[in-house]
Design brief:
The complex is a heterodimer of chains A (136) and B (408). Chain A is built from two helices and nine strands. Chain A is an alpha/beta fold. Chain A has a single domain, classed as Glucose Oxidase, domain 1, CATH 3.50.30. In chain A, the strands form two sheets. Chain A has a seven-stranded mixed beta barrel with strand order 1-7-6-5-2-8-9. A two-stranded antiparallel ribbon of chain A has the order 3-4. In chain A, strand 8 and strand 9 form a beta hairpin. Chain A is globular, with a radius of gyration of 13 Å. Chain A starts with a strand and ends with a strand. In chain B, the strands form four sheets. Chain B has a five-stranded parallel β-sheet with strand order 12-11-10-13-14. Chain B has a four-stranded parallel β-sheet with strand order 8-7-6-9. In chain B, strands 3-2-4 form a three-stranded parallel β-sheet. In chain B, helix 9 runs parallel beside helix 10. In chain B, 57% of the residues are buried. In chain B, strand 6, helix 9 and strand 7 form a beta-alpha-beta unit. Classes of the chains: A alpha/beta (136), B alpha/beta (408). Chains A and B meet through strand 1, strand 3, helix 1 and helix 2 of A and helix 2, helix 3, helix 8 and helix 10 of B.
């Protein structure tokens, strides 16, 4: 069974396509907030869209901006389904809760060992787990 | 979470809907972090501008005003994305400029003091040791925790606004003793003679330890750092490492007297600092944009940059921007620094920070800028999403580049 357990979680159950990043994330540093595409030159996911994805990021980068930015991308209908962080910071959580986007932190095992980008996964914050339910 | 009788009353609507939903939101965030209780705060600093909030955020603010939201503690605003004196010339979008004006009005109606600064700790409010505050941006938080010994987490705009309305914040992270201890040691052997060198330290340490809860302990440095040096160090640590606190032996109030008990040890000498400067690609060699911003310039930074520009001119076809807040700009005008800069062809923007300027990507394309040169390691990192190739250089080198148009 392909399962990743998480330590902290907020939000409703969601399903979506996994997008697994080896690099951390900041909506202000890395993301074009009009298209939902990661545009920072050299980012490991440069050119990829986070729209409707279940996004796995090892770390949170920067910045206070995530608080309003997550609400903004949700308003523009270009938000991801969920943010799954290895290590996160308060801003990501404040932003996700404000925007109503599920968010988790702390993972076992590393999602790269269990999922690949493109897998269809379900995030269950109440049970603190993420499971693969197929490939797209 | 353990809530007080007053907090339960707020959740029951005693102070109105805006405050009720603010506390409900804070409790949800607190639960994520397993906060046991809320802690009262004395001061709030919050980010709110149209570039970061977007239409959704503006609509939320309008609703707050309709609901009668009012700050219960002193609250100030961070740098915004429009300088109304320069927005037309910069080609910023008039519709967004109008929205920015509306945001400022909404903030004032909620009794927020619109200071429009990311250096509130240099010109606005200096909390004392152990004082709980709710601040954002990150540069303000790391300065508050580290240099003042005050206590704040990174508080995003909506979270800080909630704290302003309820007068409290969930007790987790840097409000708690156990998260404020040093986690690794950094020996500073480099001489660090320029502000950019301090940012370079922040980049080296932050990039290799990206973790909100990592707390570096700097030691071994042979002179007393200035406030501006610690500002650039902190801003870069927060930007590259998402860090909210550092200790500096012999300097910051909660620093341990020595760092030998910490297992992980890092050393930064001249070689490491040089490696930072040599790591930047010069791209296509274009050097027509030089920026002193992120954080806004202090009065003493304004004086230094003015001294370097005195009697010189920004190269024709190049642009140089300095950003600061209204208080510093007023004093810079009175002291003549602003005139020296403007005579040299430098554009001084007030109340903004360069990287959050509304319409910056369009501005970049309109001016055919590819490279941005700055003495701020923070802005060199943070401006990436606008697709600038960025280059960190020492302050005097930045001035040379602005005046010669040549990258070195």
């Amino acid at each position: 069974m392909s399962i990743v357990r998480v330590q902290q979680a907020y939000g409703a159950i969601v399903e979506g396509e996994a997008l697994i990043s080896e690099e951390g994330f900041s909506p202000r540093y890395d993301l074009d907030r009009w298209s939902g595409i990661i545009t920072k030159p050299g980012h490991k996911l440069e050119g990829m869209s986070i729209v409707d994805k279940v996004c796995f990021f090892p770390t949170a980068k920067g910045g206070i901006a995530a608080g309003w930015a997550f609400y903004d991308i949700k308003w523009k209908k270009i938000a991801p389904k969920a943010f799954i962080f290895g290590v996160t910071n308060p801003v990501m959580v404040q932003g996700a809760v404000f925007a109503g986007i599920p968010i988790t932190a702390g993972w076992t095992p590393h999602p790269g060992e269990v999922f690949r980008s493109g897998d269809w996964v379900r995030v269950d914050p109440a049970r603190k787990l993420i499971e693969a339910i197929g490939r797209t | 979470m353990e809530l007080t009788a007053e907090e339960r009353e707020i959740l029951a609507g005693k102070l109105g809907e805006a405050t009720r939903r603010a506390l409900e939101y804070q409790v949800e965030v607190g639960r994520f972090w397993r906060a046991k209780r809320m802690v009262p705060v004395t001061n709030v600093h919050l980010m709110g501008d149209i570039e970061v909030m977007g239409d959704g955020g503006l609509e939320f603010l309008r609703e707050e005003v309709r609901l009668g939201a009012r700050c219960r503690v002193d609250a100030t605003t961070n740098a915004r994305c429009i300088d109304f004196a320069h927005c037309d010339r910069l080609g910023q979008d008039p519709a967004e400029v109008a929205k920015e004006r509306e945001i400022i009005q909404c903030m004032r109606r909620m009794d927020v003091v619109t200071t429009d600064t990311c250096i509130n700790y240099q010109t606005g409010y200096q909390p004392h040791l152990g004082e709980h505050v709710a601040w954002g941006d990150t540069g303000t938080v790391i300065y508050a925790n580290s240099v003042f010994g005050a206590r704040s987490n990174f508080e995003a705009g909506p979270a800080a606004l909630a704290a302003a309305l309820t007068g409290r914040t969930p007790e987790y992270g840097f409000h708690l003793d156990e998260n404020r201890r040093g986690s690794f040691a950094v020996r500073l052997e480099a001489s660090l003679d320029d502000l950019a060198d301090w940012g370079a330290v922040g980049k080296l340490v932050g990039e290799s330890h990206q973790n909100y809860f990592a707390v570096p302990v700097f030691h071994g440095y042979r002179r007393t750092p200035t406030a501006d040096e610690l500002k650039h160090l902190g801003a870069a640590l927060a930007s590259y490492g998402s860090m909210a606190m550092f200790h500096f032996a012999g300097v910051t109030p909660e620093a341990p007297s020595e760092a030998s008990h910490l297992q992980e040890k890092v050393t930064i000498g001249e070689r490491e600092i040089r490696s930072v400067y040599s790591s930047y690609s010069l791209g296509d060699g274009d050097a027509r944009l030089v920026v002193f911003s992120g954080p806004q310039q202090s009065l003493l930074e304004m004086r230094r940059v003015a001294q370097l520009f005195d009697g010189r001119k920004v190269k024709k076809g190049s642009s140089c921007f300095v950003t600061t807040n209204g208080a510093v700009l007023a004093q810079s005008r009175a002291l003549g620094y602003a005139k020296v800069l403007e005579d040299a062809g430098v554009t001084i923007l007030e109340g903004v920070c360069f990287y959050i300027l509304q319409n910056l990507s369009s501005l970049r394309r309109a001016h055919h800028w590819t490279n941005m040169v700055s003495n701020s390691a923070k802005i060199v990192n943070i401006i990436g999403a606008h697709r600038f190739n960025t280059i960190l250089r020492r302050t005097a080198d930045c001035v040379e580049i602005a005046c010669s148009g040549e990258l070195r």
